[in-house]
Amino acid sequence: xxxxxxxxxxxxxxxxxxxxxxxxxxxxxxxxxxxxxxxxxxxxxxxxxxxxxxxxxxxxxxxxxxxxxxxxxxxxxxxxxxxxxxxxxxxxxxxxxxxxxxxxxxxxxxxxxx
Length: 114
What we know:
Layout (H helix, E strand, L loop, with lengths): L1 E5 L4 H12 L4 E5 L7 H11 L9 H4 L3 H4 L4 H10 L8 E4 L2 E4 L3 H8 L2
Parallel strand pairs: 1-2
Antiparallel strand pairs: 1-3, 3-4
């Protein structure tokens, strides 16, 4: 089953959820503010998508200290994402071993094709 992660009031997450529903694609949704993602899951996502997982355009990013923003290796970035879930770029779509960050109709068509 497809799993979608994000923040329920995010416009991009809403678009992704609406698209999945309109396509009749069964999925689960997790708001990672309400139900934080484990460090091991964040690590596995990071292994697949790398730095794309970190949202450097967010307000949360701008509020971090210079030391926190200088995190450059996987353990530091994963720890930062675990501590500040709003730094996770959204939405995150997980379909088996596939992890995709962001939303675009064309990408989702390919990712959800059976």
